[in-house]
Design goal:
DUF4892; 2 domains; OmpA-like_sf; OmpA-like; 6-stranded antiparallel β-sheet; alpha+beta; 60s Ribosomal Protein L30, Chain: A
């Protein structure tokens, strides 16, 4: 009898995990939580995505993220139903550990009521009403891995069901060599590999010089952000000069935590070339 119960339990788990909606798939980046299944799935090409980088607050009488960035790219949305005997935090931490193992950069994180209203997250930000749950059970994070932005949101509904939303946006970036030629400001993703490419470009194009533009939107005051971004730009400049590029052809500009309105920056370095 005990053996029969174990077999039935195993089969029920397999059925539970096999109930994905038609046409859905896991991401190539992150593995699903054990025995969870996909209840909502969407792929959108060339999408303008609102990446949330702060909690919700009232702006002109309307609840909205206190900080966000609009990023264009290819979006994949996956909503998982988590097994009933697991908490939202367990599912969230499972994905978080995977992101940490991949050395993803966490840009924002909130827990419980500090995130704001779950109703707003579900209906206005994530656009899926089943994600409306109990405020104190919710958790959200935004992360970045190379040119992919990852948003995670988990919550327990009033009916005790647990859901986790995974958004992955692969940003549309111009090839670095093309950007250097055209003078378009381009974010550096793999600085070690790109440094030699920039150095070679400058050696081959003697009438060009380069601006290193650094920004830092991590925790800390404005001066601390500015100091960190200057340090990052100076370090990259020194490495370019050490590669054989003359000092007068490598300029720096630090934004710290500031950027143009509506285009909040994330920590990093970008470059742009111009004629001397």
């Amino acid at each position: 009898m005990l053996r029969l119960l174990i077999v039935l339990w195993t089969l029920s788990g397999q059925l539970y995990a096999a109930s994905d909606i038609r046409g859905s798939a896991d991401s190539n980046l992150l593995e699903r939580f054990p025995r969870s299944f996909i209840v909502q799935y969407e792929e959108i090409k060339d999408h303008d995505y609102r990446l949330v980088l702060g909690g919700l607050e009232k702006i002109n009488g309307v609840l909205a993220p206190e900080k966000q960035q609009l990023i264009n790219g290819d979006l994949t949305r996956i909503t998982y139903r988590i097994p009933d005997n697991h908490t939202p935090d367990e599912a969230f931490e499972s994905f978080t550990r995977q992101l940490q193992a991949l050395s993803a950069e966490r840009l924002f994180h909130c827990v419980g009521r500090e995130c704001g209203s779950s109703n707003q997250w579900a209906n206005n930000i994530l656009k899926y009403s089943r994600l409306y749950g109990v405020d104190k059970t919710q958790q959200f994070s935004a992360s970045k891995l190379r040119n992919t932005y990852i948003s995670l949101y988990s919550v327990r509904r009033g009916n005790k069901r647990v859901y986790l939303r995974l958004d992955l946006l692969e940003s549309a970036l111009m090839d670095l060599s093309e950007a250097l030629i055209s003078g378009v400001q381009t974010e550096l993703l793999e600085q070690e590999a790109e440094l030699s490419q920039i150095s070679d470009f400058l050696k081959e194009n003697v009438s060009k010089r380069i601006w290193i533009i650094s920004h830092d939107n991590q925790e800390g005051g404005r001066q601390e952000q500015l100091d960190r971004s200057i340090e990052a730009a100076e370090a990259f400049r020194k490495r370019l000069i050490a590669s054989g590029v003359s000092e007068e052809r490598v300029l720096i500009h630090s934004l710290g935590g500031f950027s143009a309105a509506g285009n909040e920056s994330i920590s990093g370095i970008s470059v742009v070339t111009e004629d001397m």
